[in-house]
Amino acid sequence: MDRVPGTVGPVVRVERLTKEFRVLRHRSGLWGAVRNLVSREGTVVRAVDGVSFAIESGEFVGYVGPNGAGKSTTIKMLAGILVPTSGLVEVGGLIPHRKRTLNARQIGVVFGQRTQLWWDLPPLDGFRLLGRLYRVERATLERRLEEFTSLLGLERLLETPVRKLSLGEKMRCELVGALLYDPRILFLDEPTIGLDVVAKQQIRMFLQQINREKSTTVLLTSHDLDDIESLCRRVLVIDRGSILHDGSVDSLKRHFGNLRRLVFQLADPGRAEISLPVGAFVESLREGHLEIGFDADRVTAPEVVRAVMDRFDILDFQLREIEIEDVVRRIYQRDDAG
């Protein structure tokens, strides 16, 4: 039975949530095509496997994991797009797939690879259409449009067709569209994917302000650990459909260390062994490119660079952030070692 909106408890509650998909087997060739028509063989893939967590009102939570971990599937169940195979999911006191319309009015959703705006219309027309769909009063709509477009620097873009906007410009417009009707909960699935540094920073500052001033609850999926570290006070790590970690960003770092990566372009890679300081390790050496991972809590980047310069002639090097796949791998390594 659905709970009444506004009752006491977490604004998002997930218990033993599971989602399975049946993947049909397709045989090749003429005879295979005939067999496909009469035999629907396949396998069951469990995208989300008994996940449980709760999010309180006003929290800003990161939901991270490698590709295929189950992040987007979870978001789609929270949004009411997908129906769970088993388990419980509640958003604002509603079971999303049973109360899709009511749920849609209390949540905003942004998928980094999809758009809710109209491709051939300018954003301003799309925003006003969304305002009518969600029954936002005209004066309220115009006030919010003025506020959001100012915060995100969209004034010169409002009359330009969406198809002519850059990826970063479209993403800023997507955020406006998702927040026009003042949802209490915001689900963001890779909102900064493919964006440059400036566009990412604009979006981060905007989200921080919305969360701080409006107490909007935010669940963010991202492969960018800078997004997670700068925005989220809590992070959930999911892989193979299950939660591996639920805690602060600092506690996550304690799981895998403060990892960084240096990438070197070498003039002559040679074949000799390289002696690295404690806390650093060779990730790969191929075709003149050397990748060194290191724990910044144990060794500094200059120490690693000096060790490499003692062995190789360096043409160029750069410091790169560790990706979430590295985080998950280190968690598994720690668990295996235990």
Automatic annotation (TrEMBL):
Keyword flag Repeat: no
SMART domains: AAA
MF annotations from Gene Ontology: ATP binding; ATP hydrolysis activity
Record domain ABC transporter: where: 12-265
SUPFAM superfamilies tied to this protein: P-loop containing nucleoside triphosphate hydrolases
Pfam families: ABC_tran (PF00005)
Key words of the record: ATP-binding, Nucleotide-binding, Transport
Keyword Mitochondrion in annotation: no
Official protein name in the record: ATP-binding cassette domain-containing protein
Lineage: Bacteria, Candidatus Eiseniibacteriota
